Give the backbone structure.
Amino acid sequence: MKTAIVTGADGGMGREICRSLLDNGYSLIMACLLPEAAMPFFRELQEQYIHPKGSLSIRMLQLDLASFASVRSFASALSGTTINRLIHNAGILPRSTRLTEDGYEMISQVNYRAPLYLTRLLVPQLEKGSVTEDGARVLFTLSCTVDFGLVFRLRPSFLTHVPKTWAGRVIRYGHTKQALYYASLSLAERLKSKGIQVVSTDPGAVNTPLVTMNNALDPLVNIFFRPLLSSPARGASTAIWLATARELPLPYGGTYRKCKPRRFLVGKNVCHR
């Protein structure tokens, strides 16, 4: 039995990824911030895919990426489980932000720190998956905002400084994706010896609840901009391909868009001090 974890499983792209994984024979672990809100989707999947004589299973576990304690609890609940796919789909661009209980700015923790922490905690389970026929693969979700680094330098203060404006939060979102991009390259090198592949996807501009200005301009965004965005199904297509493909052209550190390798424009403009 092959098993996949999807964070943000009940979101727009998360739902598409979950269905496709089940279609491809993966048992599913849904990581959701609010399990009660995700329950209708969970039951829908159970009715469609779980049969008395079938081999598939679906579990739903609570995961709050704004809390390292929740991340540890989630990983602990999966002790001894063989994991073949870890798909980091969850992400936020909230109306307002704050410092978390762990002392990090919330967007930075949810989009950057927590996914890396969860990956580190699940390495033993991924190692078990790496020796199976389906192998082990970690997938991070990036964004075209990675290239914000060409204009807005990534500095260590992005981890703790709380932006007060919508523009500041958008820039912070881009910083988290840029940091995750570089971290994924480093992680790919470190996990290669363990047989764990690490790749990333840029889904493009997708019509999800993240696309909002949270102000009086939202009606204009809905009329003029939202129709130009990709559907969640189209946005998720590269992640689905990365999760289900037998082989990848760049299995260790590759970044993909529209099911093809892509390169970001950002270069040596990261402040490491």
In short: Residues 268-273 have pLDDT under 50 and may be disordered. Strands lie at 2-7, 26-32, 58-62, 85-88, 136-141, 196-201, 252-257, 260-261. The chain is about 40% helix and 15% strand. Residues 166-192 form the longest helix (27 residues).
